[in-house]
Amino acid sequence: MTHANTTFTVFLIKGLAVDADFFGDAKKYLIQMLDKGMYPNAATYTAVLEGFGRQEDKKAEEEGKESLEVMMLRGSFLDFVLFSVMDSEC
Fold first, then answer.
1. Which of 58, 60, 35, 37 is nearest to 48 (CA)?
2. How far is residue 41's CA from residue 8's CA, in Å, rounded to a whole number?
3. Which of 3, 43, 61, 63 fits a 20 to 30 Å CA distance from 23?
């Protein structure tokens, strides 16, 4: 993981995803990260999936499932934490 990936994950995405008011920004930065050719790790996806779970509406649930599908298509792995989030939130 590069410093840029770490910055996106730790400071932007994880920090923004925990607050419902800023969750949209977390999604935006995840998309930017992907557009720049960066590869989010399990912690990045976990933060976003947890954010989807906190939204507690059907649209967020569907977006969360779509994000999980994208993650799997990109070859990301399911670690224990991510699988737990997926199982309980989505």
1. 60
2. 11
3. 3
Characterize 46-70 residue by residue with b for buried, 16 or more Cβ atoms within 10 angstroms of its Cβ, and e for exposed.
bbbbbbbbeeeeeebeebbeebbee
Name the pTM for this structure: 0.66
pLDDT, tens digit (0-9, with 9 covering 90-100), for 58-88: 888 888 888 777 777 766 655 545 555 555 5
| Residue 51 pLDDT grade (very low, low, confident, very high; cuts 50, 70, 90) | confident
**Can you tell me the distance from the alpha carbon of 16 to that of 75, in angstroms, rounded to the nearest whole number?**
25
Concatenated DSSP letters for the chain? --HHHHIIIIIIIIHHHTSGGGHHHHHHHHHHHHHTT----HHHHHHHHHHHHHH-SHHHHHHHHHHHHHHHHTT----HHHHHHHHHH-
